[in-house]
Amino acid sequence: MEQDGAETSSIAYKVFTFEESTKNKQEPVSVTIPEVLDPQYGMYVWPCAVVLAQYIWTKREELKDKTVLELGAGVSLPGVLAAKCGAKVILSDNAQTPLCLENCRRSCEANSLPDVEVMGLTWGEVSPDLVLLPKLDVILGSDVFYEPQDFEDVLVTVAFLLRRNPSAQFWTTYQERSADWSIEALLHRWKLKCVDVHLETFDADKPELAGSTLPGNHSVLMMIITLKTRDV
Question: How far apart are the first and last CA of the chain?
């Protein structure tokens, strides 16, 4: 099919199916993600998203009835899976990128999730929507550490949310794209700490997850960021 200039975008639907590796009676959960064939970031599923979704799948019992916010959601695979596993989910992306916010809504529609809220939250900005968020249990971020100039803005937002929700955790997956990649100094500045989560501990150390060809040969890492506890 020919496309009529840049204004026309094609949408392809991908299905990701999460199931137990052992033979038990639990039903698998499938998530349909509409990918927009467009040069905008976040319009298709990145390797990090599938790995984070796999972690969510292994924690699905803990997430039931919990309030979860996804930052930089894009096509929203992790957040949508959390919602399908019984969490109360809010999807967010840059307030200045309405196309990405529209794609969050499209992912909700594709999975019959009319109650999932979508909002614009710009990293590094303390907006009224950020301040008015409900109590959070888990914050999700898939490949939000992509552009080094955004790292501190991401952590400013995460630190703000964790200070308002001291028992919450930030679950994030990322690709180490440079030998200079580090957020250690920024974590120290914003009084945060992180724990690495090894992929083999949640069955994600494979090139193909959830019936897809992702993450492929990409090197994806995961960590959980929380508030530093005060020295006693």
Answer: 65
